[in-house]
Every structure is written in structure tokens, then in C-alpha cells.
Amino acid sequence: MIKKTNNRMIRINDEIGREISNIIRGDLKDPRLSTITTVVSVETTTNLSQSKVYVSIMGDKEEKDKGLDALKNASGFIRKELASRINLRNTPELKFILDETLDQSMKIGSILKDIENND
Predict the structure, then answer these.
(1) Residue span of the structural domain in which 71 resides
(2) What is the pTM of this model?
């Protein structure tokens, strides 16, 4: 199924991602959050009611779980800050989802390197 996304939604997703990244970096003081937490992408519904925020957190499984819990606990604060920074009719509810793509690509890269070294 092809997902139809218009330019307005792309711009909104980019802006939401940029601002959430700034809020995480500058305004959140939760010690559970890793120093390397990156907003990978954002998918917002067309009615602006919900946003899925995909984040990458560096560290082991325990650090990732703690970081994701910290983001989920701070979602109300982040949403309030987002509302003050972005002029939208509705500020979407935020759902944080851990994105494992970077870890998977690093694992595949090391496997390929091992295969190359064995040949």
C-alpha cells in the first residue's frame, strides 16, 4: 500500500522532529536519558491528533529502556513545550518508539566485515 503524504505533512513532521530534538537536548534534565538520544523520524496523523516519534538511544538494552521510559514520562512536558514553539491548531499527543535501525545496520556491517576477513 502506498502511503500518500503531502508537502505540508512532511514540513510539519520535520518541524516537530526538530523541536522535540531541541527540547530533549536542552530542556529535559532526566538522568535516565542517554547523552546520545536522536529523533530519527516523526509520523503525524493528518488531523494532528497523534505523532509517532521514532528515537534512537545509544547504549545497552537497559539504558535504552530507561531512556524510552524517561521520554514517555516526559511526553506531557515535551508536548507543552512543543505547543509553545510551533503554531499548530492542535498539538499532537506524542508516542515515543525505539528505532533499532542503526543498531541493526551496525550489526550487519560487522557481520559483513567478518565474512570479508574470513575470505
Answers:
(1) 7-118
(2) 0.79
